[in-house]
């Protein structure tokens, strides 16, 4: 079913209700998001696609609780989001590793608010190192890692506090096609094992179809839902299948149909780190 009025779920883990967001810019106001409505089931995988500047990262920042100035409501388990919380993890658009911290120290940052003992912290970080396949690199520094490895560290940091909801903002944007596919497979495996709910922002329509149960297509200025496309294909999905191809065409048409699509900027890895939002 493809519809803006998806039937309500019994117990949504996340509800966006009439969410709107304005930014103050140059003495004026920029309307970044308008009337964003979405219920997400526990365990569901949502992909958000849309042209650059249509509000994808802003939506994730609102759900993770880094920005609490918005209109409407965002509920997690029926409770309004009032700030960050360990049931929500995020992998940022740029991986934002601290260059002066080792792999394990970067991952441990995700546990900063957990009040664990040193031993528990170490055990948890070690589990995540194994999960994302970085054994042997615990003491390496970001400059000693490949792009794919750095992304794994960022994913491990997003997962280390065992969130029930994981948000990923263009997590594989800087990777070559092959590494990207490997990471997509791994994300599927992690989701299956941990049963977590995921919200993935991507500009790659194939990635969205490969991973998501539903793809939310946003349109820009202001960012709002254009369409929600259900992806009813069984896993593992075959990119070469007819159904996959059809969905790809359909989504590309939604994205570029009105000629307004602007691709997100090319990511440059290892940008200087000015700040981290944890
Ligand atoms: N802190 C801010 N102050 C002012 N304007 C902002 C701020 N953050 C985002 N915006 C504006 O809000 C809009 C949405 O930005 P956002 O970063 O959410 O887009 P996006 O969909 O993630 O784009 P991209 O695909 O390029 O990452 C843009 O017009 C942007 O300029
Ligand atoms: Mg963004």
From TrEMBL:
Residues 14-245 form the ABC transporter domain. Its EC number is 3.6.3.-. GO terms for molecular function: ATP binding; ATP hydrolysis activity. It comes from the Bacteria. SMART domains: AAA. PROSITE patterns: ABC_TRANSPORTER_1, ABC_TRANSPORTER_2. Keywords: ATP-binding, Hydrolase, Nucleotide-binding, Transport. The keyword Hydrolase applies. CDD domains: ABC_NrtD_SsuB_transporters. InterPro entries: AAA+_ATPase (IPR003593), ABC_transporter-like_ATP-bd (IPR003439), ABC_transporter-like_CS (IPR017871), ABC_transporter_ATP-bind (IPR050166), P-loop_NTPase (IPR027417). Pfam families: ABC_tran. Belongs to the ABC transporter superfamily. PANTHER family: ALIPHATIC SULFONATES IMPORT ATP-BINDING PROTEIN SSUB, TAURINE IMPORT ATP-BINDING PROTEIN-RELATED. This is Aliphatic sulfonates import ATP-binding protein SsuB. The lineage of its organism: Bacteria, Pseudomonadati, Pseudomonadota, Gammaproteobacteria, Pseudomonadales. The gene is ssuB_4.
């Amino acid at each position: 079913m493809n519809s803006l009025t998806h039937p309500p779920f019994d117990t949504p883990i996340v509800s966006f209700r009439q969410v709107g967001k304005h930014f103050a810019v140059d003495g004026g106001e920029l309307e970044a998001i308008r009337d964003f409505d979405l219920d997400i089931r526990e365990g569901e995988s949502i992909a958000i696609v849309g042209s650059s500047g249509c509000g994808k990262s802003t939506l994730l920042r609102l759900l993770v609780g880094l920005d609490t100035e918005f209109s409407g409501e965002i509920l997690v388990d029926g409770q309004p989001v009032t700030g960050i919380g360990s049931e929500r993890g995020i992998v940022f658009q740029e991986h934002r590793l601290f260059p002066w911290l080792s792999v394990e120290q970067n991952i441990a940052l995700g546990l900063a608010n957990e009040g664990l003992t040193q031993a528990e912290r170490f055990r948890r970080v070690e589990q995540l190192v194994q999960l994302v396949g970085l054994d042997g690199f615990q003491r390496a520094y970001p400059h000693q890692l490949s792009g794919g490895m750095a992304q794994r560290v960022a994913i491990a940091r997003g997962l280390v506090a065992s969130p029930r909801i994981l948000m990923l903002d263009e997590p594989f944007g800087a990777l070559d096609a092959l590494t990207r596919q490997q990471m997509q497979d791994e994300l599927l495996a992690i989701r299956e094992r941990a049963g977590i709910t995921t919200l993935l922002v991507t500009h790659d329509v194939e990635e969205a179809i490969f991973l998501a149960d539903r793809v939310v297509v946003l349109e820009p200025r202001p960012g709002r839902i254009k369409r929600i496309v259900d992806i009813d294909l069984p896993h593992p999905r075959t990119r070469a299948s007819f159904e996959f191809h059809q969905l790809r065409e359909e989504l590309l048409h939604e994205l570029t149909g009105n000629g307004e699509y602007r691709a997100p900027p090319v990511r440059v890895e290892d940008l200087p780190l000015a700040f981290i939002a944890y």
